[in-house]
Design a protein that fits this description.
CATH topology of the largest domain: Rossmann fold
Number of strands: 21
Shape: globular
CATH class of the largest domain: Alpha Beta
Length: 750
C-alpha cells in the first residue's frame, strides 16, 4: 500500500455518485450497442410485405407505429417460433387494436382460433371492436348462460372441415377459475320391475363393484366419486348446473330476457311474443341482435323508433342472451375436453392482473396458456412490482424458458422454492437485523440478535436481459405520432386557504402533531394513519365539524367547528367553478375527480354547488355496474352535461372518456397507477382536442407533500422507461421516502 500514490487515496475518498440522467447521457449509446450485440433485436424495422397487406385489408387499419408492433410480434412468434410475446404499451395506445391485427396476421399463416381473456366489463367491447375490424369473423362469447352449450358445440366440431372464417372466443376474467359441478351418469338397464342395473352409456357393459357384484342404478347414483368404465374408459359422470333448478317455462324466460333491454317492459314483451313467436325471437336474440332491433311488423313499419333502436343497440352490445344451462367454469372444460393446441392464439388483456402466486385466475390463465399454441400478453405496467410477482407471470406464459433455467416445481408440486431462487438470482433481498435487550439466562443478561430476510422492490438487469427484452415490444403514446394525438399538458394550481381556514388548519395540525409525537415516543404508531388522513382531508371537508378521536382509547384529540356553511364556496371549489365556466365557453367538458365519500362526501356538495351556478352535472358512482359505465357516460353526454364528477378508481381501466378533454384533480389519493390511468382517460387515440390535466392543492397543507411524493414516484417510473417529465407535477418533485413517512417527517419536524 505504501507504493500507491497519494492521489489514489484522494480519489477513493471523493464522491462517486452520478445521477441516472447524467449516466444515460454519458454511457447510453455504448450500453445500447453492447445490448444489441449480446441480444440482437428480433425485428429491425424491415416489415413483411405479406403481413402488411393483411393489415391493410382490415376494416380498421392500425396506425404505422401499431403496425410496427404487430410486425415485431409476428416475427417473434412465427419467425423466431417463441412461445409468447408481451406488448407493454402505454395506456391509450390501442392494445386491443394491435392484438386483433396480430391475430389477423397469424390467421393468414394458419392460426385459426383466437381465445381472448378480458376483464368482465370489457368482454363485449372486445366483441364490438373485433367485428368492427374483421366484419366476417365468427365471435363466440364464453361468458354467458349458454357457455356450456357453446363449448359442447366446439367439441363436436373437432375434425370438421374449416370454412376459412377467423374465429374469436372471448372469456371474462371472473369465469377463469378451475373446478366444476358434476353428478354420476350411467345408462339404466331394466332387470326386473322397478329395478335397473347401471351400464356404461358408450359400450353398454354392466358396471361392477370391486368384488365383482353388479351395481344397480340406485347404488351408482349414491356414489360420491367419479368413475370411469373399466372396459372403454368412458367417463361415468357429467357436468351439472349448481343451485336450484329453475322451473320457469321457456316463454317466461324469454319474456324476462327481453325485459332486460331498454324500452321493453312486460307488456311490450308479451306483445312481441304474440306477434313473432318464441322460436323466431330466440333465434334472433342469440344469433342476430341487429335483426331484432330492426324488426318490422305486418304493416311494414319498424317496431322500434330510431331513438329506441339507438338505446337498444348501445345496451345490447353488453348483454348476453341465453336460454340453456349456465354456471360452468369454461377453463376446466377446455382443459379436460379440448385437445392441446385447439386454440392457436391466446390473447391476455391486462396481463399484470395474473401475476399473483395463489390467484385462481392466474392459475387458470396458466392452464389456458398451456392449451394454446402461442400467447400474446397485453399490459401497460409489466415492471411494477417485486421479482417474484413477475416470476409467476413469466412462468405461466414462458414455461419452457423458465424450466430451461432451472425454475421448476419441487417434488410436492410447490413453486415457492423456484420463486425464492428466482428472487435470489434476479430480485432484491435485504436482511433486517433486530437487537433486543433481553434476559437470556436466569442469572445473566444479554442482547438478543435476530435476522430476517425480506424482499424489496426491484428487478435486476440480468433478469431483464434474459426474460423481458427478448419477448417484449414497447410502445408509448408519443411513438404514435403528433399528427394522430393532440397536445397533452399538465398544470398544478396551488390555492391559498381563507384566513379562518388557514388558522383552523394550523391549530388542528399543532394539536395532532403534538399527540403524534407523544405516541411515537411510546413506540405507538396507531395514530399515524389517523393524523395523516385527517390533515389531508380536512381542508377539502371543512364544511362539516371535525372530531378526531384516538382509535383505541376513544379520547378526543381535536375538535374543529364548521368553517364553511352549505351555501358558502371554498377556495378550491371556486377554482373549479372558474375552470368549468372557462372551459364551457370554449365548448369543452370537464371531468372532475374527487376521492372522499361517506361522512366526508365532497361529491354531493360539488354537484349541488355546480348545479346552483347553472352547470349540468352528472356523478358516476360505484353503484353503476362496471359493464354499463361506458354506456352510462355516453347517455349523460347525450343529455348535454358540462361536468362529470367521479372517483378515479372507477375509471382507471377500460374507459375512453374522449368527450372530456379537461380533467381536474381535486384530490389524488396515494396510488400512482390509478393517478396515471385516470389522468390519461381522455388523451387517447381518437381524441381531437388538446388535453388539459389540472391538479389542485391547498398551499401550506399536507396535500402539497402528498403531491410532491406522487410526482417523485411518477418521475422515477418515467425515467426507468427513458422519459424525463418536463411539466405538471414534476415542478414539485423533491427527494423523499414513502408517502406516509414523508408526511410524518413533515409533521414531527424530522
Amino acid at each position: 500500500m505504501n507504493d500507491l500514490p497519494q492521489s489514489f487515496f484522494q480519489a477513493t475518498n471523493a464522491p462517486m455518485a452520478i445521477g441516472l440522467t447524467e449516466f444515460i447521457n454519458e454511457f447510453g449509446e455504448e450500453l445500447l450497442d453492447s445490448l444489441n450485440r449480446s441480444n440482437p433485436p428480433v425485428y429491425t424495422g424491415n416489415p413483411s410485405v405479406i403481413r402488411q397487406q393483411v393489415m391493410d385489408g382490415l376494416e380498421r387499419q392500425p396506425f404505422p407505429a401499431q403496425a410496427e408492433v404487430v410486425q415485431a410480434v409476428a416475427a417473434l412468434l412465427l419467425d423466431r417460433n417463441e412461445q409468447a410475446a408481451i406488448i407493454n404499451a402505454e395506456m391509450g395506445t390501442g392494445k386491443t387494436m394491435m392484438a386483433i391485427a396480430a391475430a389477423a396476421v397469424l390467421h393468414n399463416e394458419g392460426y385459426r382460433r383466437t381465445l381472448v381473456i378480458a376483464p368482465p366489463h370489457l368482454v363485449y367491447k372486445w366483441r364490438r371492436e373485433i367485428l368492427e375490424t374483421i366484419p366476417d369473423a365468427r365471435v363466440w362469447v364464453l361468458n354467458g348462460p349458454d357457455t356450456l352449450i357453446k363449448l359442447l358445440k366446439l367439441r363436436d366440431q373437432i375434425g370438421e372441415a374449416y370454412d376459412g372464417r377467423q374465429e374469436f372466443f372471448i372469456l371474462g376474467r371472473v369465469r377463469m377459475r378451475m373446478g366444476y359441478h358434476w353428478r354420476p351418469a350411467c345408462w339404466p338397464r331394466r332387470l326386473r320391475e322397478r329395478q335397473y342395473l347401471a351400464t356404461c352409456s358408450d359400450c353398454g357393459r354392466v358396471l361392477e363393484d370391486q368384488e365383482g357384484n353388479q351395481i344397480t342404478a340406485e347404488e351408482f347414483h349414491r356414489e360420491e366419486r367419479r368413475r370411469s368404465c373399466p372396459h372403454c374408459q368412458s367417463q361415468l359422470w357429467t357436468l351439472m348446473r349448481p343451485g336450484k333448478v329453475d322451473n320457469s317455462t321457456r316463454r317466461s324466460t324469454l319474456s324476462k330476457s327481453m325485459c332486460r333491454i331498454p324500452t321493453i317492459g312486460p307488456v311490450r314483451a308479451e306483445r312481441l311474443l304474440n306477434d313473432f313467436g318464441e322460436d323466431f325471437l330466440v333465434s334472433m336474440l342469440i344469433d342476430n341482435v341487429s335483426e331484432f332491433i330492426n324488426l318490422i311488423d305486418a304493416q311494414g313499419n319498424f317496431v322500434f323508433s330510431d331513438r329506441q333502436a339507438k338505446r337498444m343497440e348501445r345496451a345490447m352490445a353488453n348483454i348476453e342472451f341465453g336460454f340453456g344451462e349456465g354456471g360452468y367454469q369454461p377453463t376446466e372444460f377446455i382443459k379436460r375436453y379440448l385437445p392441446d393446441g385447439y386454440f392457436d392464439l391466446l390473447v391476455v388483456d391486462e396481463g399484470h392482473e395474473y401475476k399473483n402466486s395463489g390467484s385462481a385466475q392466474g392459475q387458470a390463465m396458466g392452464v389456458l396458456a398451456c392449451k394454446a399454441r402461442k400467447t400474446v400478453l397485453l399490459t401497460g405496467t409489466l415492471m411494477g412490482g417485486y421479482a417474484d410477482d413477475l416470476f409467476y407471470l413469466l412462468f405461466r406464459i414462458l414455461t419452457h424458458r423458465m424450466i430451461e433455467d432451472g425454475y421448476r416445481p419441487n417434488s410436492r408440486g410447490s413453486m415457492a422454492p423456484a420463486a425464492m431462487s428466482f428472487m435470489r438470482d434476479h430480485g432484491v433481498l435485504k436482511d433486517i437485523y433486530t437487537e433486543r435487550d433481553n434476559e437470556s439466562h436466569k442469572t445473566a443478561k444479554g442482547k438478543k440478535l435476530s435476522v430476517r430476510t425480506v424482499k424489496a422492490p426491484g428487478f435486476g438487469p440480468k433478469g431483464i436481459h434474459r426474460f423481458v427484452l427478448p419477448f417484449t415490444v414497447f410502445l408509448k403514446l408519443k411513438d404514435i405520432g403528433g399528427n394522430i394525438l393532440p397536445t397533452y399538458q399538465e398544470e398544478f394550481i396551488d390555492i391559498a386557504m381563507s384566513a379562518e381556514q388557514a388558522l383552523a388548519y394550523q391549530q388542528l395540525a399543532g394539536k395532532l402533531t403534538q399527540a403524534l409525537r407523544q405516541a411515537l415516543a411510546r413506540r405507538d404508531t396507531t395514530l399515524l394513519g389517523v393524523v395523516l388522513n385527517v390533515l389531508l382531508a380536512w381542508p377539502d371537508c371543512c364544511f362539516r365539524a371535525e372530531i378526531v378521536k384516538h382509535p383505541r382509547s376513544k379520547d378526543t384529540l381535536a375538535l374543529v367547528p364548521t368553517i364553511f356553511a352549505d351555501n358558502e364556496v371554498m377556495p378550491k371549489e371556486q377554482a373549479l367553478l372558474d375552470l368549468c365556466f372557462t372551459e364551457k365557453a370554449k365548448g369543452r367538458k370537464v371531468l372532475a375527480y374527487s376521492v372522499y365519500t361517506g361522512t366526508r362526501d365532497t361529491t354531493s356538495r360539488l354537484k349541488r354547488l355546480l348545479e346552483q351556478n347553472g352547470l349540468k352535472v352528472a356523478v358516476l358512482r360505484a353503484s353503476v355496474d362496471t359493464a354499463r359505465r361506458e354506456d352510462w357516460i355516453l347517455d349523460q353526454v347525450d343529455r348535454g352535461i358540462d361536468v362529470l364528477i367521479t372517483n378515479p378508481e372507477l375509471v382507471k381501466t377500460g374507459l375512453d372518456l374522449l368527450d372530456f378533454p379537461t380533467i381536474a384533480f381535486l384530490q389524488t389519493g396515494y396510488n400512482v397507477y390509478t393517478l396515471q390511468q385516470a389522468a390519461r382517460r381522455s388523451w387517447r387515440i381518437g381524441q381531437k382536442h388538446a388535453v388539459r390535466v389540472i391538479f389542485f392543492g391547498y398551499a401550506g397543507s399536507s396535500q402539497m407533500t402528498c403531491l410532491q411524493l406522487m410526482a417523485k414516484k411518477i418521475a422515477v417510473a418515467q425515467s426507468t422507461s427513458g422519459d424525463v417529465p418536463e411539466s405538471g407535477l414534476d415542478s414539485l418533485n423533491q427527494d423523499g421516502d414513502s408517502v406516509e413517512m414523508a408526511l410524518a417527517r413533515q409533521l414531527i419536524g424530522v
